[in-house]
Amino acid sequence: MKLSATPGIGWIDLAWAHHGFVDHFAIYASDSPFVQGELVEKTVYTRFRHANLGPRSRTFYYRVVTVDAAGNRSRPSPMLRASSLTSVTVSGQPVAVIGEFDRTSRGLALAPNGYQQYTARFPNGPDYPASDWPYLHPGPADKWAGSKPHSFRFRFTLPVVRDLVLAVWLIDTHATIPGVLSLSCNDTSFAEVPLERGATKGSTVGEGPSLRPSIVEVAVPASALRHGANMITFTKASGSWHAYDAVGVFTPA
Ligand SMILES: [Ca+2]
């Protein structure tokens, strides 16, 4: 059995191939190559996301054991070493930030559960920093927000034009229709980000174990930026809502 890994910020995806009967796979992760480490998952699938690893790069050594219906365990697979990626919020320098990257919606407008006031409070959409930035960004699947696309505007001043990274940390998203976040800078589109499915609680709960956070960090090319005033537009043109933790533009290390 050969393991493969795909790293992200705060997670590592493992995948493997297996033929034949199996009751489940047992996945072990260790921070040392010399010990099997702890059981992190039992699954019937041939893939596993090791999640909630935090914003700093972490390295693990993985092995997978196959368990049949009688409880017989295979020898461990060959070991695979993999490292998660480091967030630009750790490695970079902030240019402009809304909120705190702390896995809660605290400090954002209407947080943690006031989304019904969104339309009355932001009739033309948020325009930061002239307006506050609400914790919940509705999508066209949300009747309570008019069943239409919604755009949020984030303005900031740039003293020197260079490549930046936009960090969008979410505390949660809708569980079945998370939708796509369309990002443009000064009217240049630079990313279409399919959001990860969440746990749905983030519309009414600002923090805690019932949420499923996710991290989006995308490059903003210097060609889309200007000296002085800039504006990044966040548009949700498909799916339902997502709930913010914090947003910021950073100079990468
Ligand atoms: Ca936060």
Automatic annotation (TrEMBL):
<dbReference type="Pfam" id="PF14683">
    <property type="entry name" value="CBM-like"/>
</dbReference>
<dbReference type="InterPro" id="IPR008979">
    <property type="entry name" value="Galactose-bd-like_sf"/>
</dbReference>
<protein>
    <recommendedName>
        <fullName>Rhamnogalacturonan lyase domain-containing protein</fullName>
    </recommendedName>
</protein>
<dbReference type="InterPro" id="IPR013783">
    <property type="entry name" value="Ig-like_fold"/>
</dbReference>
<feature type="domain" description="Rhamnogalacturonan lyase">
    <location>
        <begin position="98"/>
        <end position="247"/>
    </location>
</feature>
<dbReference type="InterPro" id="IPR029411">
    <property type="entry name" value="RG-lyase_III"/>
</dbReference>
